[in-house]
Amino acid sequence: MNEPNVKKLRFAIVGAGAIAQAYASALKASTVCDVTVVADVRLEAAKALAEKLGSRAVGSIEELLAATDIDAAIVSTPPISHPEITIALLERGVHVLCEKPFAINHKSAVSMIEASRRSGSLLTMASKFRYVKDVVEARRRIHAGAIGDVLQFENAFTGLVDMSNRWNSNPALSGGGVLIDNGTHSLDIARYFLGPLREINVVEGKRIKGSPVEDAVHVFARNENGVPANIDLSWSISKELDYYVRIYGSTGTISLGWKESKIRTKVGGPWEVFGAGYQRDAALAAQVENFIGAIRGDEPLCITTDDALASVRAVEAAYTALRASDSRWTLLEGSVARVAETNGKPASNGSGTLIGV
What is the structure's pLDDT at 164? Predict the structure, then answer.
């Protein structure tokens, strides 16, 4: 996108936290955009990031909305604030790339999408794994039949992470715990490979940190064809796996790894390395480039507002399943299994929450 005669897009970065620093690097490297404003209620944080970018800092949304030199914005604030900020920017005619989780409930997501449609301004959800080269290549190979029919999807995002002093574990700001935080990525990746998900069930692991939110969950989902997805999410354990996604087919397997990605097209056959693994900065840069390309009319958005809404609905359904999970087990008493009851009615073993996304 090195086109010196093209007018540069003027960007605002809203929120100056860790992910904003990564976006700042991607924007700074672009030849077709400049960051003109950094906004954060923590004005000192905004000033520190703005200084690196040669832009100015503001400490309130009101000051941001008063700016006349913004064409697009990246919203990287806590999820509870996404609707208010995003809708205000869209109504100002500013295109928005909103960080995940897109919203904490589908009503908020719908209001954001409606604002985009009314204003004609573009809106997309950040989901960096869709822009990882290995992920894109794996999907291409699967669609080409490289591993036969897809039979199972596995994903694990686990690690020892202290969230005690971060907004991610404050439900008033985040909407939940590891399920909405890491699970948003997981469910979007599952949809990317499997298509619409039909049903979901969630079991919470043991809380060991006294957190007000869930810090470990196991997610089970199925797509419209009955293909299962098994997802492990945790801030309290580390599985120390060399991969984060594995997809099993009738003839082979694809493994997406942190340091390399590989495929074997025959069960029990040799592995072939096809990618260099997860590269966050490159993925974020590709996401920004797609957003810019869509604004300029050069390419479609890879993540549509339908994808964003489906992501929110899937997470919302997952929490519904999580709250009901203790009634979804078959209890064993001696050698005789009996079905757990919910409100006086038997709950079928393995039942989940229908989502249709």
Answer: 85
Query: 39 near 15, Cβ under 8 Å?
Result: yes
- How is residue 240 written in tokens? 């120390």
CA distances (Å), origin 345, targets 320, 340, 351: 18, 9, 13
Characterize the bridge pairing of strands 150-158 and 228-234. parallel
Chain-centre distance for alpha carbon 137: 19
Confidence check: pLDDT of 336 > 50: no
Annotate 17-53 with b (16+ C-beta within 10 A) or e (fewer). bebbebbbebbeebebbbbbbbbbeebebbbebbeeb
Q: How far is CA 211 from CA 157, 195, 311, 353, in A?
A: 18, 33, 25, 25
Q: Does the pLDDT of residue 163 top 50, yes or no? A: yes
Number of CB atoms found within 10 A of residue 79's CB:
26
pTM: 0.90
Per residue in 8-31, pLDDT (tens digit) is 999 999 999 999 999 999 999 888
